[in-house]
Design brief:
The protein has about 300 residues and is an alpha+beta fold. Helix content is about 60%, strand content about 10%. It is elongated.
Length: about 300
């Protein structure tokens, strides 16, 4: 965001927090440099039996994906603490209100600057992650459905960043204490991410493959995400896969269980973008509600 194109409260906000705002683009640039180096090393490695030339790249992507999950929490905490609560706690926001700036413009400038920076960097990191992932697209050990890759490769990470910004704006005004506001916002954002992450694979019905008991295990497609597997009884009921286990095999399955087959529930890769779209829509609705709440609190205290 160019300083030359900004005016009024937005210029002041960028000026106040310019160092922190440059941290995210710097992190994206560093991650790109690291992934470029690791991809070149993997491509130039001499193939040897029993070695994985992409091991370091896979590990770096795993850590990078997990770090990306912290981005909405950090963005929300920063908005709640240094951008909003600190000014309310110290009273410096009054200076902005004396410079021909309305309370609404003061809050909107902070939300706009934080949202644009966070969403742009989240999208950029997603592109970097996608570039680094290209050699691993067919790898069993790096799934599109894993926590980290799922968020960074789609649209939910920018949406969660918007949610963090909106929650930070409302919590910062309600708590009005820098450290406490940061903690509450981080916990609230993380809770939403954890809950939706736990239920996202129930948005669409899973597909099922079956096979008779004793036959070959019913493997789903190679790029599928397995959600459950086990045994099927003659009545159509389901049992855990270990229900018949005796001496490490299914040969000793008790007759009273009436087990006739085995099943695997899975989501194909074609479920990825519909699941992303549903989750993104839910998160954006929550962000919109939090944003409405932020301006409602502002109006109640500065009519």
């Amino acid at each position: 965001m160019s300083m030359l194109t900004l005016k009024g409260p937005r210029w002041v906000t960028v000026r106040q927090h310019r160092r922190a705002l440059w941290t995210l683009p710097a992190a994206v640039a560093v991650s790109l440099a690291v992934f470029v180096v690791l991809r070149r090393q993997a491509a130039g490695a001499t193939p040897r039996t029993g070695t994985d030339p992409f091991r370091e790249l896979r590990e770096a992507l795993g850590y990078g994906g997990l770090a990306a999950l912290l981005l909405p929490l950090l963005v929300g905490a920063f908005v709640a603490g240094p951008m909003v609560a600190r000014e309310l706690e110290s009273g410096t926001y009054r200076l902005a209100l004396t410079q021909s700036s309305t309370p609404r413009a003061w809050l909107a400038s902070k939300i706009t600057v934080a949202a644009v920076t966070a969403v742009a960097c989240a999208a950029a990191f997603g592109l970097v992650h996608r570039f680094a992932r290209l050699p691993l697209t067919t790898s069993y050990e790096y799934s599109w459905a894993d926590r980290g890759p799922y968020e960074t490769l789609g649209t939910v990470l920018p949406a969660y960043c918007l949610l963090g910004v909106a929650l930070g704006a409302v919590v910062g005004q309600l708590v009005r204490r820098t450290t406490a506001a940061m903690a509450v916002t981080g916990l609230a954002t993380g809770l939403v991410m954890a809950v939706l992450g736990a239920v996202r694979w129930s948005f669409l019905p899973a597909r099922t493959v079956t096979s008779p008991l004793g036959a070959q295990f019913p493997y789903p497609p190679r790029d599928a995400f397995t959600t459950d597997f086990g045994l099927i009884t003659s009545s159509g009921g389901r049992l855990p896969e270990w229900a018949c286990t005796r001496s490490g095999s299914l040969d000793g399955c008790p007759a009273e269980l009436n087990v006739t087959g085995q099943y695997v529930d899975y989501h194909p890769f074609t479920h990825y973008w519909p699941t992303q779209s549903i989750e993104t829509a839910v998160v954006l609705v929550l962000a919109a509600l939090a944003l409405w709440g932020a301006f409602a609190v502002l109006r109640s205290r500065h009519p």
